[in-house]
């Protein structure tokens, strides 16, 4: 590990704002072939992301479905989980797993309630802090190769404790399989 000594504000600013060029020459041929197939030409990963984001901004879910199919060969029919799917997920998990998730959620909630910051003001020093929740947050729970209901609990429960009104969870499918029931139950 190389340690670098940084002196002064200017030195810190120079290091923090530096843009190192990314080396894409080492990309596997399969990645280059995929970008040619998707975009009709070879483009860098950075340019791929720029194009995908531009398309998503322009056409929304249509672009998301298109790129899910092109990149991962996944057909996204409905990106929202229905109440019936939630009921199926609850029926699919064992009582032991459900109870474990409930206990974990309770413990996470108790911890975050105990450490929840509050407003404070020091009038003599003229400083303080107002603590306000966000109205809406987006959460991501990995799930492509393994399910992580713990990630749902460790992100959604603190958001609820903080008073966030709207919480949106995104998690990938494994191929065209249904979403993992434990992740849905944790939500």
UniProtKB/TrEMBL annotation:
The lineage of its organism: unclassified sequences, metagenomes, ecological metagenomes. One of its GO terms (cellular component) is cytoplasm. This is Histidinol dehydrogenase. Keywords: Oxidoreductase. InterPro entries: Ald_DH/histidinol_DH, Hstdl_DH. The keyword Oxidoreductase applies. The keyword Oxidoreductase applies. Gene3D superfamilies: Nitrogenase molybdenum iron protein domain.
């Amino acid at each position: 590990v190389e340690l670098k000594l940084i002196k002064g504000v200017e030195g810190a600013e120079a290091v923090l704002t530096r843009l190192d060029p990314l080396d894409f020459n080492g990309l596997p041929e399969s990645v280059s072939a995929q970008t040619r197939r998707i975009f009709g030409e070879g483009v860098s990963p950075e340019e791929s992301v720029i194009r995908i984001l531009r398309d998503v901004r322009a056409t929304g879910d249509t672009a998301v479905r298109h790129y899910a199919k092109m990149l991962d060969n996944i057909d996204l029919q409905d990106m929202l989980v229905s109440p019936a799917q939630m009921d199926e997920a609850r029926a699919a998990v064992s009582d032991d797993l459900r109870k474990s998730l409930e206990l974990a959620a309770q413990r996470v909630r108790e911890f975050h309630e105990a450490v929840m910051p509050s407003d404070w003001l020091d009038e003599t020093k003229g400083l303080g802090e107002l603590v306000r929740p966000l109205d809406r947050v987006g959460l991501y729970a990995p799930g492509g190769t393994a399910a992580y209901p713990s990630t749902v609990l460790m992100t959604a429960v603190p958001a609820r404790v903080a008073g966030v009104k709207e919480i949106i969870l995104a998690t990938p499918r494994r191929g065209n399989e249904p979403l993992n029931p434990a992740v849905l139950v944790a939500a």
